[in-house]
Specification:
The structure holds 2 protein chains of 2 kinds. Chain A has strands spanning 4-6, 9-13, 18-23, 30-36, 43-49, 55-57, 60-65, 70-75, 84-91, 100-101, 105-110. Chain A is an all-beta fold. In chain A, the strands form 2 sheets. In chain A, strands 2, 4, 5, 9, 10 and 11 form a 6-stranded mixed sheet that branches. In chain A, strands 1-3-8-7-6 form a 5-stranded antiparallel sheet, with no helix packed on it. Chain B is mainly beta. Chain B has strands spanning 4-7, 10-13, 19-25, 31-37, 43-50, 56-57, 68-72, 75-80, 89-95, 101-102, 106-110. In chain B, strands 2, 4, 5, 6, 9, 10 and 11 form a 7-stranded mixed sheet that branches. A 4-stranded antiparallel sheet of chain B has the order 1-3-8-7, with no helix packed on it. The mean pLDDT of chain B is 95. Classes of the chains: A mainly beta, B mainly beta.
């Protein structure tokens, strides 16, 4: 079942923050986050396993609320390079199983 | 993370013909995934290819239309058979672990 992602699109000015949400009605083993730039393949950002641990590097981080089956991606002090479409992907079980992707959030950062 | 070489990068094909897409991985992987992405849309899983066994297809995708080969742990092909304009899309292979790595994609146009 496809996870629900929101918002579908967001426009930011450089330096502003954004949050992208991802939720599922099913129990999840993990949540992935990817960024895809136009004409390119998706690029892995991070994975969050059951446990609610927040992960990330510097200005991009994410959390996973296992009880609510929700994850959020936090983009802080956005840069022009953050522009692209962000996808969350969910795994129902471990062991490198298939990932089901949300519809994506198109993020545009403007000067 | 793994490096994937995907070929061809793009093709324009006549309806009724078939196209075979190849993915070569620089390391051995047990599972490979084939996704389809229509312009501006999310990624939809076509099938999971395990070495040494038949591919597992998702709902809406059948082996006669999308036959997959997995002759060894570093290589897989996806064939799009008897193509129609509705098959125009981007096709991507992916390997797990822990973040999923994608091939560069094959942009297929059927005329």
């Amino acid at each position: 079942q496809q996870p629900v992602q929101s918002p579908q699109a967001v426009i930011l000015r450089e330096g502003e923050d954004a949050v992208i949400n991802c939720s599922s009605s099913k129990a999840l083993y993990s949540v992935h986050w990817y960024r895809q730039k136009h004409g390119e393949a998706p690029v892995f950002l991070m994975i969050l396993l059951k446990g609610g641990e927040q992960k990330g590097h510097e200005k991009i981080s994410a959390s996973f609320n296992e009880k609510k089956q929700q994850s959020s991606l936090y983009l802080t002090a956005s840069q022009l390079s953050y522009s692209g479409t962000y996808f969350c992907g969910t795994e129902d079980s471990g062991g490198y199983q298939k990932v089901t992707f949300g519809i994506g959030t198109k993020l545009q950062v403007i000067p | 993370s793994a490096v994937i070489s995907q070929k061809p990068s793009r093709d324009i094909c006549q309806r009724g013909t078939s196209l075979t897409i190849q993915c070569q991985v620089d390391s051995q992987v047990t599972m490979m995934f084939w996704y389809r992405q229509q312009p501006g849309q999310s990624l939809t899983l076509i099938a999971t290819a395990n070495q040494g066994s038949e591919a597992t297809y998702e709902s809406g995708f059948v082996i006669d239309k999308f036959p997959i080969s997995r002759p060894n742990l570093t290589f897989s092909t996806l064939t799009v058979s008897n193509m129609s304009p509705e098959d125009s899309s981007i096709y991507l292979c992916s390997v797990p672990g822990p973040g999923y790595t994608f091939g560069s994609g094959t942009r297929l146009t059927v005329v």
